[in-house]
Amino acid sequence: MTTRIIHTMIRVLDEDRSVDFYKRAFGFEVATRLPFDGFTLTYLVNAETGQEVELTVNHGRTEPYTHGDGYGHIGITVTDLDSEHIRFQSESLEPTPIKEFVVDGEMLARFFFVQDPDGYKIEVLQRLGRYM
Amino acid sequence: MTTRIIHTMIRVLDEDRSVDFYKRAFGFEVATRLPFDGFTLTYLVNAETGQEVELTVNHGRTEPYTHGDGYGHIGITVTDLDSEHIRFQSESLEPTPIKEFVVDGEMLARFFFVQDPDGYKIEVLQRLGRYM
To answer: What is the mean pLDDT of each run of 10 residues along chain A (132 residues)?
Structure first.
């Protein structure tokens, strides 16, 4: 059995706002845009992995989507977390402070969180240890 | 800027039940297991992409997680959707019927859905067209 994870789908209210966010924050580009009756699917591709974020835009929806407490986030690694944190601040993307996760004196993870325009959390991690 | 999507994090109630599900359904294996005070992180890796599903198990939680209406699913492609559909049925994984998405006479997508033990939806797609 070969299986391949290709995308994570989230529902968003404003396509342009989300496309702008994922481009400014992570350099994702629109790979494909499929408008249908009632909804549009927009695929944002991460050049390095080919992995996509699939935006579903339900036409006419104005009520913000609800998040429950089950789904967490996607994780995205970067080569220089400190410079990205500064850049996120200068872009007014409101990153949380950088957190370090140290266990038995070993740096396990360094990361911050950011929220996309619909409130989905994204963990931005230093490429380090098991988070490559 | 180089960025790399590495995981999707979901909160689950029963680690063994979820590990068993992702193995039986998609062949994912446990890459790393990190038990902490209060919670455990278990990383399930998709061999073909290196992409991971990160399970967060909050110790002592018994109330099912809620899902809201925002987050959708992860998408996973397979080489033979029909045989996987039969296998999912024989494994009592309760796949939805196969749907075909045809636009202007062109097969855009063939897929079914399955839910993991906590109710997260997973789209299983034939490797075809833009869904490779």
So the answer is: 90 95 93 93 91 94 94 94 95 96 91 94 93 90
Query: Is A91 annotated in the active site?
Result: no
Entry pTM: 0.91
Residues 41-60 of A with CB under 8 A from B: 43, 46, 48-49, 51, 53-54, 56
Q: Give chain B as a 3 state SS string.
A: CCEEEEEEEEECCCHHHHHHHHHHHHCCEEEEEEECCCEEEEEEECCCCCCEEEEEEECCCCCCCCCCCCEEEEEEEECCHHHHHHHHHHCCCCCCCCEEEEECCEEEEEEEEEECCCCCEEEEEECECCEC
Domains of chain B as residue ranges with CATH: 7-126 (3.10.180.10)
